[in-house]
């Protein structure tokens, strides 16, 4: 199993990494895919910045602080899983004392009401728990189980996925994943897309119960995607490679989504040809 996939699927150590400098844990495949420079500015007088998309400027753009979701994704890429998880829950550089008090006094503060979780936040939350893998996490459930809980909106408990209800932001992201996986990861597309008939999954619900969710036919199946990650070791190396690039795309897509949203851009661009490359 290659290094990135292991990071994505298995390693809990990364999620508690405290001593690693940024980027150390993330395999950008530099060793096997060197980043050749084109020197378009020096050789042709054309700045490389011209080929960046607007949203690629976020780190040095004119906008204020990136949203908490963008910050969480960045922390995750740097291997700081716990920090990413906390940022999603509303913790930031100035409210750590309040967060710590709330965490040690459950039910006695208004933390949850004061820090509502948006739908896209839930998707990133799900992804963090998926990276946690088989390890036991919150509520005595494995990372994979909690990943499905959040993929279904956490306490919002969405039931239908695909053509029907679900939040529009989640539907858009699922559509983009559906399109991209059909084009770029055909070996595993049939696993992560419900084909001819609706699929039903049993997932954990609040209060230690289980409940069922339904994925409409021909749609992105976020629960099957988590299942596929949980069995990654049994896949062929070609399937593992495709699972790896699909997870990379998912991270980029979520980051792009939140940056576009913060700038008030048209989010449908995520379904256009350029973004799907
Ligand atoms: C931190 O979160 C609090 C809410 O708990 C918010 O009022 C404050 O503006 C945030 N600070 C920063 C620097 O984002």
Domain unit count = 1
* Low-pLDDT runs: 1-33
Roughly what is the average pLDDT, rounded to an integer? 81
Percent of residues in beta strands?
5-15%
Total helices: the number is: 12
The N- and C-terminal alpha carbons lie at a distance of 25 Å
Radius of gyration: 19 Å
The SSE string, one letter per element, is HHHHHHHHEHHEEHH
Proportion in helices: 40-55%
Largest sheet: 3 strands, mixed
Overall shape: globular
Strand order of the largest sheet: 1-3-2
Count of extended strands: 3
Bound molecules: 2-acetamido-2-deoxy-beta-D-glucopyranose
Signal peptide: 1-19
Keywords: Signal
Features:
single chain; 277 residues; mainly alpha; three-stranded mixed β-sheet; 12 helices; 3 strands; binds 2-acetamido-2-deoxy-beta-D-glucopyranose; signal
3D architecture notes:
By secondary structure, the chain is mainly alpha-helical. It has one domain (3-271). The protein is 45% helix and 5% strand. It has helices at residues 3-9, 40-44, 68-77, 81-89, 96-104, 111-114, 119-132, 143-151, 168-184, 186-192, 222-230, 237-262; strands spanning 160-161, 199-204, 210-215. Strands 1-3-2 form a 3-stranded mixed beta sheet, covered by helices on one side. Helix 3 runs antiparallel to helix 4 (81-89), helix 3 (68-77) packs parallel to helix 7 and helix 9 (168-184) packs antiparallel against helix 10 (186-192). 2-acetamido-2-deoxy-beta-D-glucopyranose binds at residues 90, 92-95.
């Amino acid at each position: 199993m290659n290094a990135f996939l292991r990071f994505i699927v298995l390693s809990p150590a990364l999620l508690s990494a405290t001593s690693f400098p940024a980027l150390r844990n993330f395999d950008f495949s530099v060793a096997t895919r060197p980043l050749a420079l084109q020197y378009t500015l020096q050789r042709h007088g054309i700045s490389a910045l011209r080929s960046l998309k607007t949203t690629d400027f976020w780190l040095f753009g004119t906008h204020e602080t990136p949203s908490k979701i963008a910050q969480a994704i960045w922390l995750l890429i740097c291997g700081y899983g716990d920090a990413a998880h906390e940022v999603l829950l509303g913790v930031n550089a100035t409210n750590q004392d309040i967060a710590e008090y709330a965490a040690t006094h459950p039910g006695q503060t208004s933390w949850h009401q004061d820090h509502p979780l948006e739908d896209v936040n839930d998707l990133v939350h799900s992804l963090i728990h998926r990276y946690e893998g088989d390890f036991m996490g919150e509520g005595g459930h494995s990372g994979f189980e909690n990943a499905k809980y959040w993929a279904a909106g956490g306490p919002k408990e969405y039931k239908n996925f695909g053509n029907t209800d679900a939040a529009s932001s989640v539907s858009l992201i699922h559509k983009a994943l559906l399109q991209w996986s059909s084009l770029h990861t055909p070996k595993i597309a049939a696993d992560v897309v419900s084909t001819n008939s609706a699929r039903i999954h049993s997932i954990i619900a609040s209060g230690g119960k289980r409940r069922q969710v339904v994925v409409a036919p021909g749609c992105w199946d976020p629960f099957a995607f988590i299942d596929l990650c949980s069995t990654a070791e049994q896949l062929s190396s070609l399937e593992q490679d495709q699972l790896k690039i699909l997870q990379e795309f998912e991270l980029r897509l979520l980051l792009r989504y939140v940056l576009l949203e913060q700038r008030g851009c048209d989010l449908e661009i995520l379904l256009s040809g350029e973004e799907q490359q």
